[in-house]
Amino acid sequence: MVARTIGVIINGATGRIGTTQHLRFLMEIRAEGGLAMRDGSRLVPEPLLVGRDEGKLAALAAAQGGLRWTTDLAAALAGPDEIFMDCAATGGRPERVKQAIAAGKHIHIEKPTAPTAEVAMELARLAAARGVKHGVIQDKLFLPGFAKLMFLKESGFFGRIVGARIDAGSWIFDGERQVCQRPSWNYRADQGGGLALDMMAHWRYMIDRLVAPVARVAAQISTAVPRRVDEAGVAYDVDVEDSVQALLTLEGGIPAVISNSWATRVRRDDTMCVQIDGVLGSAVAGRNRCFSQAAVNTPEAFGGASLGMDFMAGWAEVPDTLPVKPPFRQCWELFLRHVGEDAPYLPDLVEGAKAVQLAELVYRSHGEGRWVEAARLAL
Ligand SMILES: NC(=O)c1ccc[n+]([C@@H]2O[C@H](COP(=O)([O-])OP(=O)(O)OC[C@H]3O[C@@H](n4cnc5c(N)ncnc54)[C@H](O)[C@@H]3O)[C@@H](O)[C@H]2O)c1
């Protein structure tokens, strides 16, 4: 058996997603002796941890059995490692990615790829011109509940889709009495904060693939909690939105709605719920579970007779028949195959730019107080 080692620079390795997802699943693949390629060889990822805090890096590297680490990103990029993953805080990502492209690294980065669609497309063009492979993390459709929604769509369950609704978010503590569950940079514009920039990156690909591509948007944004306390216990003013309501028209005239807030309390199945309605059936999914109701099982729910009716009883759970691997593990396996054996990788940097575009449309619609159209993005 031939094994080929492939160096992966993880910039932001000590951050939450860097440690709990990217490093974790690369190490898992490594511990299994690498990822089996079609030709029988194995591709073995060899992480190089990059960050700003020597103490944290050294501790993480040691805890993983003695990995390589450095605080010098330029030195890491000058080395032989082939893949660059940027999962540091969102702010400044385009500059880091440009350096990595110039160094000839394959690019596999967290969302959002850039603050604007124009910059995101510039990254896609630079990567294409340099001839490196490129991709963005789009993990949510690998979650069991949303994978089942995709399964229903591909099975033709919905018939003609007539609408979609996303209801997402939860209460994020202000850090005063209860520790804030999100990093403070999420609430600072100059560090890549803002709910729209953060979350539309997911809703774009989910809507595009589960229903139809986004055609136009009308949105409002707001800031429910304007002052918060950061990780060091210091109070600061929030200069980004923490709530978004967006109306969308999808290609084919399908209406969709997104309500997403970090200032709402959860009384629904999950923190992320997606409902799709079609003439032949409807389905509602959270991250883990998915419930469907076919047209023929739809109760008469109208008028006085429906008062006190158990509406939940009319839904059937979609069973666990699909193979399940953790979403970030699936993202990495696909990208390693893309690099190792030229297999296709759907979410390239153009898809990453489309995701950024939805956030931009939300901001523009709010600012201009009108519907805004989604321009077609392509290399
Ligand atoms: N795909 C997903 O579902 C998902 C989920 C969460 C986060 N993310 C993305 O991953 C990235 C990191 O998010 P997180 O929740 O892990 O945040 P985090 O704050 O836990 O980690 C970010 C890391 O970046 C470092 N950092 C902060 N500012 C930096 C700077 N200017 N330059 C270099 N490093 C810097 C921090 O010290 C920290 O180690 C973000 O881009 C976020 O949008 C994606």
Query: Can you count the beta strands?
Result: 18
The amount of helix comes to 25-40%
Query: What is the name of the CATH topology of the largest domain?
Result: Dihydrodipicolinate Reductase, domain 2
How many structural domains?
A: 2
Report the C-alpha radius of gyration, rounded: 22 Å
User: Major beta sheet, specifics?
Assistant: 9 strands, mixed
Oligomer: single chain
- Going by CATH, the architecture of the largest domain would be 2-Layer Sandwich
Low-confidence stretches: none
What proportion strand? 25-35%
CATH superfamily of the largest domain: Dihydrodipicolinate Reductase, domain 2
Report on this model:
With 379 residues, the chain is α/β, with parallel strands linked by helices. It has two domains: 3-139 and 327-346, Rossmann fold (3-Layer(aba) Sandwich), CATH 3.40.50.720; 140-325 and 358-366, Dihydrodipicolinate Reductase, domain 2. The chain has nine helices and 18 strands. It has helices at residues 16-31, 54-63, 73-78, 93-102, 117-130, 144-154, 195-210, 327-341, 349-368; strands at 3-11, 35-36, 42-50, 68-70, 83-86, 106-109, 134-136, 161-169, 214-222, 227-229, 235-237, 243-250, 254-261, 272-278, 281-285, 290-294, 316-317, 372-373. Strands 17-16-15-14-8-13-12-9-18 form a nine-stranded mixed β-sheet. Strand 3, helix 2 (54-63) and strand 4 form a beta-alpha-beta unit. Helix 5 packs antiparallel against helix 9. It is globular and about 70 Å long. The model has no long low-confidence stretch (mean pLDDT 97). The structure holds nicotinamide-adenine-dinucleotide. The site of nicotinamide-adenine-dinucleotide has 20 residues, from helix 1.
